[in-house]
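INFO  loader      accepted 1 record
INFO  loader      residues=219
INFO  predictor   begin
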Amino acid sequence: MDDQLLHSFLPNARIAIVGSGAVGLFHGIKLAIGGLDVRFLLRSDLETARKQGIRLLSAEGDLLYAGSSFYGSSSEIAEVDLVVISIKATANQVLGELLPPLLGKETWLLTLQNGLGNEEVLSATFNTDRVLGGVCYVAASRFQQAVVRHFGGGTIALGDTARPARRVVQEIAAAFERCRILCQQSEDLNSARWGKLLWNICFNGLGIAAGSLPGLLQQ
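INFO  predictor   done
INFO  writer      dumping tokens
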């Protein structure tokens, strides 16, 4: 896709959420209620979501999305323009099965996963340079089917695997901001990931020792 055409990319984009846990649902609900065409790939939550929608409980305001965009397989969703990947990085081996039905020649991949090397895995697995990365700082927990509780935070540091960063990063950041998702562009995605890792080293063990304090969940 030519950069000159990106201004028209996101308003009409089809977006798939792959990994509908706390992180995927938190961002997906906001994008959907913000007016974007979001399609959720669900497993155990599928029937609940179809019956009563998906809900975000937050001090910033509760949200309910009860649209019809809940799917049990990637083939039902078909090709999209942007895939937001939020499964656990330890399950990356399933992406080879989940993603192909979603991919067209101009599909972008955005990983919101924790850990290092996720962008490289996506690039190598799908032989594409259309890979972006986002480092999430959000305290949220999926505590029952199709329901996420948000305790605080919600910022994404968004970066490109290419140098210089392509204009699509600006387009996605602007779209996320319009949907009330704080999104900052990172000029050095690798440094942002290492910064998050160092943050986690300090607080994740403390959170577990303290009985999984709500404010330390899914940071």
